[in-house]
Design a protein that fits this description.
This protein has 10 helices and no strands. With about 220 residues, it is mainly alpha-helical.
């Protein structure tokens, strides 16, 4: 299993929450996810929290950590449903976990939404900081959309603490595919349809216009 940072380790003033809940999240995700996803999720937390600094947003790091660490757990067979989007599976897992620790329902809702919307571009950035910064961390680590906005020393420090695999770009695409290939219908209207199209030559994505034209309405 991957190692985790000591609670005292800080990157640009950001550290893994050293609370009872933070420690429980770390242990649970470390024991449940692959090393690839654990390290990716940890980087998402740091990049998201640092994006908050850059944007002048005040965010509860414990809630952001929960959203970042659970955001891909729906890709794991142990938490993958047969018919829900993997994002919703992850959001539901986080909700159940946080409820068991007595977290305020309003805060759980923020975490749930941050996970559920993390692959929906153009919306989360206008929402609560927990939601916005979860997506910001994902977009930095997977897509590199804001790569130039992070000083080199910060990028290197985060990657040193939670290393990217030598072929991370291809490894993460494969992890996405492995987690959703059994339910391709759940990718309708979201970015994961591109993963199926890339990995499965026989995949044909649902077409929004075709669904409209084939509906039971006469006109």
């Amino acid at each position: 299993m991957p190692d985790t940072l000591a609670p005292s380790t800080r990157i640009n003033g950001v550290a893994v929450p050293d609370s009872r809940l933070g420690q429980a999240i770390t242990e649970f995700i470390r024991d449940t996810e692959s090393a690839l996803l654990f390290n990716h999720s940890s980087r998402v937390f740091f990049f998201g929290a640092i994006a908050g600094q850059q944007r002048g947003l005040s965010v509860n790091h414990e809630l952001l950590y929960a959203a970042a660490m659970f955001h891909d757990i729906g890709l794991m067979p142990s938490h993958a449903s047969a018919d829900l989007r993997f994002e919703v599976d992850g959001a539901n897992a986080a909700r159940d976990f946080l409820q068991s620790y007595g977290v305020d329902p309003a805060d759980i809702e923020k975490v749930w939404t941050g996970i559920a919307l993390h692959t929906t571009p153009g919306v989360p950035e206008f929402m609560h900081p927990v939601i916005a910064l979860t997506t910001a961390g994902v977009e930095m680590d997977v897509l590199g959309l804001t790569y130039g906005q992070y000083p080199e020393e910060i990028r290197e420090a985060v990657a040193a603490a939670f290393p990217r695999t030598p072929q991370f770009k291809e490894d993460i695409i494969q992890a996405f595919y492995d987690g959703i290939k059994h339910k391709p219908h759940t990718t309708f209207g979201n970015v994961k349809a591109d993963v199926l199209a890339d990995k499965d030559a026989g995949y044909r994505r649902d077409n929004f216009c075709s669904i409209i034209r084939c509906s039971h309405w006469v006109s």
